[in-house]
C-alpha cells in the first residue's frame, strides 16, 4: 500500500489498538484492497469515512459471574462491540471460547460490517462474546453462564438496535438460554437473537445456512472459472456447525469430502466422510472427532490440526477458526494440486497464505463473501419475526441461494471494475465498503 493518507490512518489504528494483531491484520487486508477506491473518491476522504470506520461506535466490556456445579463462583469477561450501524441495526454473533479477548471481537466486528453489507440486507456490523468455554461444562453451568451474560447484555440490544446470533461455542442451546433470560428481564417477546429454535421464532435452514451458503458461493466461483464440485476431492476443517453443513452440501453437489477436524486433530477417510457419523459424534454426543476411526476402519486420525492441509485435494474449505492456514499449509495445498480455497471460517488464511494462493493461481473465496450465508439467513429470520410468519425450508434455502449468487456477482463485478479481475478478496472488500461508505457520507459526521 502506497497511499500516504491510508498509511497514516493505519498507523493510528496500530497505535490505538496495541496488542490486537488479529484486528490490525483485518484492517490492513481491507485497506490494501481499497486503495484504488480511495484514490478515485476524495469525497470519502473528506468525509473521514476510513477514520470513522475503524473506530467502533461503542465497545462494551462486562463481568459475567456464575456459579459452577460445586457451588463456587466463577467470573468470565463479556464483550459486545457495536461497530457500525450506517445501513441497519447492529448484527453479529457471540463467540464463546477461551481465546476470546478484545482483539478477536474487534476483528470479527470489523469484518462483519462488510459481510453484512454484501448480503444486500439492512444490517450493520457488531460482534460479541466471552472467554467462557462451554466445552466440558454441564447444561446447568452453561445455562447459568448464559443467563448472567444476558443480564448485562440485554441493556444494550433490541430488535431495532442490535441483534446478536451464534458463533463458535454458541449454538441453539446457548441461544435458547440467552433468549429465555432476555424475555424474563424485559417481559417482551421479540426477535432480539437469531439462531433461535424453530418452535420459538427460529428460521428453518438457519442451521445449514453458513455451510450451504459457502458451497453456493464456491459453486459460482468454480463455474465462472470453468470448474465444478462434481467429482472434486474436498478438505473441510472443523466439525462444528459450518463444517458439517459445508460437507453436506459439497457432497450433494457431487464432491467427495475426505477429511474433517477438530481442535485436537483430523480424520482422513479416503472412502469419503460418513457425515451421519460425524453429526452423531459432534451434534448429539459432543465427543472428539478421533472417535470416528473406531467405527470406520479405513479412516485414520492424526493429532494436530495443520496436517489436514497436506492431504491432496482439489478444493479446500477451512471452516474452523482464524489463521488456521499458514504460508506452509498454503504451499502444501498448492503443491498437491489444490485449485480453490473458499473460507467458511472467519479469516482462516494468514496474509502470507493468501499471497501463496494468488502466486499459484488458486481461486480464493474470502470469508466475508463466502460465509455470509449465515448472517444473510439471520437477516431472513429477523424478517420472518417482524412479519410474524415462518417460511418453509425450501423458501429460505432458495432465498439464500439467490443471495449467495448475488454476492459472487457483486465481488466479480467490483474486481473487474477496479482492474483486478479474479481477485474476489478485493471485489468483496470494495463492494461491501462502498455501500457503507455512501450511507455514512449521506448521514453526515456522526
Ligand atoms: P463451532 O463451535 O460449531 O465449531 C468450530 C469448529 O472449529 C469445531 O470443530 C472446533 O473444534 C474447531 N476449532 C475451534 N478452534 C479451533 C482451533 N484453534 N484449531 C482447530 N480447530 C478449531 O463454530 P462454527 O462452526 O459456528 O464456526 C466456525 C467458524 O465459522 C468461525 O470462524 C466462525 O466465526 C465462522 N462463522 C460461523 C457462522 C455461523 O453461522 N455459525 C457464520 C459465519 C462465520 P473443537 O470442537 O475441538 O473446539
Key phrases:
alpha/beta, binds NADPH dihydro-nicotinamide-adenine-dinucleotide phosphate, 446 residues, 15% strand, 7-stranded mixed sheet, Rossmann fold, globular, 3 domains, 5-stranded mixed sheet
Describe the structure.
This protein has 446 residues and is of the alpha/beta class. It folds into three domains: 4-52; 58-188, Leucine Dehydrogenase, chain A, domain 1 (Rossmann fold); 209-365, NAD(P)-binding Rossmann-like Domain (Rossmann fold). It is 48% helix and 15% strand. It is built from 17 helices and twelve strands. It has helices at 4-16, 21-40, 42-46, 49-53, 102-118, 139-153, 172-186, 206-224, 241-252, 275-284, 292-295, 327-335, 351-359, 367-370, 373-387, 393-417, 424-442, and strands spanning 58-67, 73-84, 90-96, 124-130, 162-165, 233-237, 256-261, 265-268, 300-303, 315-318, 340-342, 363-365. The protein has a seven-stranded mixed sheet with strand order 9-8-7-6-10-11-12, with helices on both faces. Strand 10 (315-318), helix 12 and strand 11 (340-342) form a beta-alpha-beta unit. Helix 8 (206-224) crosses helix 15 (373-387). It is globular. It starts with a helix and ends with a helix. Residues 166-169, 210, 238-243, 262-264, 305, 319-321, 324, 344-346, 371, 374 line the site of NADPH dihydro-nicotinamide-adenine-dinucleotide phosphate.
Amino acid at each position: 500500500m502506497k497511499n500516504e493518507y491510508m498509511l497514516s490512518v493505519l498507523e493510528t489504528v496500530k497505535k490505538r489498538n496495541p496488542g490486537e494483531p488479529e484486528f490490525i491484520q483485518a484492517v490492513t487486508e481491507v485497506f490494501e484492497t481499497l486503495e484504488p477506491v480511495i484514490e478515485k473518491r476524495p469525497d470519502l476522504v473528506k468525509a473521514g469515512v476510513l477514520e470513522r470506520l475503524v473506530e467502533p461506535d461503542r465497545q462494551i466490556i462486562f463481568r459475567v459471574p456464575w456459579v459452577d456445579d460445586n457451588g463456587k463462583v466463577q467470573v468470565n469477561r463479556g464483550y459486545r462491540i457495536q461497530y457500525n450501524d450506517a445501513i441497519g441495526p447492529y448484527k453479529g454473533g457471540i463467540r464463546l471460547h477461551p481465546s476470546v479477548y478484545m482483539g478477536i471481537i474487534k476483528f470479527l466486528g470489523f469484518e462483519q460490517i462488510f459481510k453484512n453489507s454484501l448480503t444486500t440486507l439492512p444490517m450493520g456490523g457488531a460482534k460479541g462474546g466471552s472467554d467462557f468455554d462451554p466445552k466440558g461444562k454441564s447444561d446447568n453451568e452453561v445455562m447459568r453462564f448464559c443467563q448472567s451474560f444476558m443480564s448485562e447484555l440485554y441493556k444494550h440490544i433490541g430488535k431495532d438496535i442490535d441483534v446478536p446470533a451464534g458463533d463458535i461455542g454458541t449454538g441453539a442451546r446457548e441461544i435458547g438460554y440467552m433468549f429465555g433470560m432476555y424475555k424474563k428481564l424485559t417481559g417482551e417477546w421479540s426477535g432480539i437473537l437469531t439462531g433461535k429454535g424453530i418452535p420459538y421464532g427460529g428460521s428453518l435452514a438457519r442451521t445449514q445456512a453458513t455451510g450451504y451458503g459457502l458451497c453456493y458461493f464456491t459453486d459460482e466461483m468454480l463455474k465462472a472459472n470453468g470448474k465444478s464440485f462434481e467429482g472434486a476431492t474436498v478438505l473441510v476443517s472443523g466439525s462444528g456447525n459450518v463444517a458439517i453443513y459445508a460437507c453436506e452440501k459439497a457432497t450433494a453437489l457431487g464432491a467427495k469430502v475426505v477429511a474433517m477436524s477438530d481442535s485436537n486433530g483430523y480424520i482422513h477417510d479416503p472412502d469419503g466422510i460418513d457425515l451421519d457419523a460425524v453429526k452423531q459424534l459432534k451434534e448429539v454426543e459432543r465427543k472428539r472427532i478421533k472417535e470416528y476411526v473406531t467405527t470406520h476402519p479405513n479412516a485414520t486420525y492424526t493429532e494436530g490440526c495443520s496436517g489436514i492441509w497436506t492431504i491432496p485435494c482439489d478444493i479446500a474449505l477451512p471452516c474452523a477458526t482464524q489463521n488456521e492456514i499458514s504460508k506452509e499449509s498454503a504451499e502444501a495445498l498448492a503443491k498437491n494440486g489444490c485449485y480453490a480455497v473458499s473460507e467458511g471460517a472467519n479469516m482462516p488464511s494468514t496474509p502470507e497464505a493468501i499471497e501463496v494462493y494468488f502466486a499459484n493461481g488458486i481461486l480464493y473465496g474470502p470469508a466475508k463473501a463466502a460465509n455470509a450465508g449465515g448472517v444473510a439467513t439471520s437477516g431472513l429470520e429477523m424478517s420472518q419475526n417482524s412479519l410474524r410468519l415462518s417460511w418453509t425450508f425450501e423458501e429460505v434455502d432458495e432465498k439464500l441461494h439467490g443471495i449467495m449468487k448475488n454476492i459472487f456477482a457483486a465481488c466479480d463485478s467490483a474486481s473487474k471494475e477496479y482492474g483486478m479481475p479474479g481477485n474476489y478478496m478485493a471485489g468483496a472488500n470494495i463492494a461491501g465498503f462502498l455501500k457503507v461508505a455512501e450511507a455514512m457520507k449521506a448521514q453526515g459526521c456522526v
